[in-house]
Amino acid sequence: MKLRLLCASLLSVKLLFACTLAHAADAPAIPKPLEEQVARLVELYKDGFATGYPEATRVQTLKIGKDSEIILAVFTIEGFDMGNNYSQYLAAFTPSANEEGVIHYTLLDALAIGGGGWRSIDKLDARLVSDSSTGATRFDVPVMENTDDDSPNFPSRAGVIHLSLEGSQSVRLVERN
Question: How far apart are the first and last CA of the chain?
Answer without folding.
Answer: 59
